[in-house]
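Model it.
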Amino acid sequence: MIIPPYLNIGDTIAIAAPARSISLEQLELFKLYVESKGYKIFIHESLTVTENQFGGSDMHRGELFNDLLGNPTIKAIWCARGGYGCLRMVDFIDFDLLKKSPKWIIGFSDISILHSHVLQNCNTSVIHGTMPIFMHGKTGSDYEEVREAVDSVLNLISGKPASYNLTQNEILNSSSNFVGSIVGGNLSVLASIAGSQSEVDFTKKILFLEDLDEYFYHIDRLFLMFKRSGKLSKLKALFVGSFTSMRDHQTPFGKNVKDIISEHCANYGYPIVFDIDSGHHLHNMAIPLGSNVSFQNGILTFATA
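Modeled.
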């Protein structure tokens, strides 16, 4: 796995809008904070173009992303927000530009499509982490939570050691310590690219999953899809992030997310760690997908080289 060059103070981070549109106002607080940490923020003159809900047409978003990939002064691309749109524009991206000049691609949710494609086709690590839109309008404790999430991204892309204490998390098959490569992202988004050239191989990987605003039976359906296709049986471990704002019908489904996952993975025997502090909430701690991680006695450590 290729690890993009780590950033130094003074390096440039570009903002991209590969899915929903973004405004300069929505970026202001994030820009001020990251610049206060010593980095430069690059905003393309066409970043705020809007077409319906998207940040411009599919081709526009792809061409803008290519401009950022091909700009040698840009060391990282931080996606402004998710929503929906990456599946429509991913085929307009020239990923050979990334192969020639690896750089960090940061985001989550809909950005999982770009992450998965990069991992599978460019063999390059990416960052599952918070996005600029989450800092917009935040004050007090909400701002502090997002700030910590932003800092967790900055730490990873600057090569600082990072570890999370999961000793208080619910863990099935917890006696196992292991080392491996971590992949994954948003469950629903990953399901949308199953069977395509953007789908990442889960075999012998640590799979991380999170999701937002889905019915319990939808989660059950997606896990059954991964199970019946043989993907769940091939994992080294499963990390379960935040499944936020899950819904149910008036007639209850009868199982929550933990129940669903425990049922469908019951016969595999690999560790399943619940409540990883990453996903659709303010305190969204960064994960370097594609990188090697170590899980020893409940401590999750990310490799920095």
